[in-house]
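Help needed: design a sequence for this.
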């Protein structure tokens, strides 16, 4: 049986797993898998690690669950989703970090994305730009319940999902001080339109999963606010832990599935 080219996995490796959590950082895959194992009394193991894609497998209430890192941005995220879908995965939840642009959202809070502004390019290879990037309702409900169960403060709403970390998020700490006209004032505009945050993968995730008839959702922990940079180690730790705790708690409701509809 041939293995998926980038993930280095085949169907036998997945053991019927149909749910995958998708962090960006490969180092977070075993950490999240360990957290799942601790919460649900199961073991976990490393399946493969190739390029930016590190996959672990564990179990929640009798269901196999994968944790696969996507790397940064839309192109590698689309590869992870496409190859996992080829192997039988149907449900995809991004678990990552984000920068908030609304004053009411604090470091350590979580954003559960209901839909994304498509500032990426990868998603346009799966659906035209007019196609909406929207999260699966049942997964959004599960993540909200998980956040409440974990005691994590969360916000539901729209995310601006950018292909670039520096210019696309109008960051002031970029090497290139000049900003293209299309990005000048972008943060102020998204804020006025009630967009909650910036991140780099949700528009690809939500577009691809919807276009392929799969389920997708995204929860991210806030690690900085505005476009001023300066993500401190403590803020990164707090935001990451919040997103992981909420996502792990939500798996109970994801596995139950139909009870959320």
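Sure. Designed sequence:
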């Amino acid at each position: 049986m041939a293995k998926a080219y980038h993930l280095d996995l085949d169907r036998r490796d997945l053991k019927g797993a149909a749910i995958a959590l998708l962090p960006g950082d490969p180092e977070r895959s075993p950490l999240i898998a360990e957290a799942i194992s601790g919460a649900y009394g199961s073991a976990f193991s490393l399946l493969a690690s190739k390029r930016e894609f590190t996959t672990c497998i564990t179990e929640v209430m009798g269901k196999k669950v994968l944790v696969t890192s996507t790397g940064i941005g839309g192109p590698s995220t689309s590869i992870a989703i496409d190859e996992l879908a080829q192997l039988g995965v149907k449900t995809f939840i991004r678990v990552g970090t984000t920068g908030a642009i609304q004053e009411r959202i604090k470091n350590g809070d979580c954003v559960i994305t209901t839909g994304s502004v498509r500032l990426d390019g990868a998603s346009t290879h799966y659906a035209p730009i007019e196609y909406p990037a929207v999260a699966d309702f049942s997964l959004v409900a599960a993540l909200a319940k998980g956040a409440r169960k974990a005691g994590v403060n969360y916000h539901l709403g729209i995310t601006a999902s950018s292909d670039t970390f520096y210019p696309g998020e109008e960051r002031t700490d970029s090497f290139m001080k000049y900003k293209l006209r299309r990005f000048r004032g972008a943060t102020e505009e998204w804020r006025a339109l009630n967009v909650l945050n910036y991140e780099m993968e949700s528009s690809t995730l939500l577009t691809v999963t919807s276009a392929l008839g799969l389920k997708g959702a995204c929860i991210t922990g806030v690690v900085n606010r505005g476009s001023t940079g300066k993500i401190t180690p403590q803020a990164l730790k707090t935001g990451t832990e919040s997103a992981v705790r909420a996502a792990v708690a939500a798996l109970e409701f994801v596995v139950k599935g139909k009870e959320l509809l």
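The chain has a mean pLDDT of 95.
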